[in-house]
Task: inverse folding
């Protein structure tokens, strides 16, 4: 199946009260592990690519070509969207040109008028091409690719302003942050989420910073309109831990244990296990 926009899968998720996972990719192993898990579990999936990860993989065209070819070679039949994560204005256009099926324009750091103007322009471009568009209001905290946000709570009226432009899905800051949550984290603001939901109606909402959010909070967020949950750090930590164990046990020193296909295998399996666990919690299994 060719890449699809995230629109249909998210409308279905919003209606069916489950969420589709966006799992960020960093290389071939990451991509393969996520696609295989989605296929095995018959779940729709969104592959997220930050601008930094895109650069690391030599550019968005490489990523797009790799993902499309992999879908074909692995005979993936579940819906897959290839999505730019926290895109800059220029990054959005580069990804549209490279064949991404979904983009996020993160205009949360602009004054609201500028966020509205740029988002409006991108809505038209994306609609014409059948690409889904995610917008953000209220910066998500933590650090991602050098962009640091404080974990604001979005203004529900500003959310409505952006939602009314016709974006596909909306990321609203509700006290969530990227990376590990600090011990004194106050938790998600369900008050904000509910107020946003009441303003934007059936618009699928996006929860960033999926790593480490307790299951009960995830389920409550889904019940309040969250239909897409982004996970990045948790797969990185799972990969790191499994790789560390392999090396610490000296397995790289035994026979052909140095072969990258062996060295990276435990990490890839750990990503698969993490993605499976998340898909179970999000409720997206058998929803392809
Ligand atoms: P985590 O790294 O905290 O899982 O957040 C991922 C994310 O929100 C990507 O946009």
Result:
């Amino acid at each position: 199946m060719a890449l699809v926009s995230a629109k249909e899968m998210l409308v279905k998720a919003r209606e069916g009260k489950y969420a589709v996972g966006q799992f960020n990719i960093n290389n071939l192993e990451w991509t393969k592990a996520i696609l295989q898990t989605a296929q095995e579990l018959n779940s729709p999936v969104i592959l997220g690519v930050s601008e930094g990860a895109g650069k690391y993989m030599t550019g968005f065209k490489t990523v797009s070509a790799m993902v499309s070819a992999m879908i074909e070679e692995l005979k993936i039949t579940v819906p897959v969207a290839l999505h730019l994560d926290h895109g800059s204005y220029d990054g959005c256009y580069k990804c549209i040109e490279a064949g991404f099926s979904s983009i996020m324009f993160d205009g949360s750091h602009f004054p609201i008028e500028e966020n509205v103007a740029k988002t409006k322009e991108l809505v038209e471009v994306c609609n014409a091409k059948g690409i889904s568009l995610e917008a953000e209001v209220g910066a998500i905290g933590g650090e991602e690719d050098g962009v640091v946000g404080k974990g604001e709570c979005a203004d529900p009226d500003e959310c409505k302003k952006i939602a009314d432009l016709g974006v596909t899905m909306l990321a609203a800051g509700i006290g969530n942050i990227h990376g590990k949550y600090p011990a004194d984290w106050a938790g998600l603001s369900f008050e904000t989420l509910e107020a946003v939901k009441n303003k934007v109606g059936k618009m699928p909402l996006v929860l960033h910073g999926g790593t480490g959010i307790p299951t009960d909070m995830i389920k409550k967020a889904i019940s309040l309109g969250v239909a897409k949950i982004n996970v990045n750090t948790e797969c990185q930590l799972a990969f790191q831990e499994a790789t560390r164990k392999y090396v610490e046990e000296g397995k790289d020193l035994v026979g052909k244990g140095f072969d990258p296909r062996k060295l990276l295998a435990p990490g890839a399996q750990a990503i698969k296990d993490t993605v499976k666990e998340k898909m179970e919690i999000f409720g997206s299994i058998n929803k392809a």
Q: What stands out?
A: Residues 39 and 281 are 17 Å apart (CA to CA).
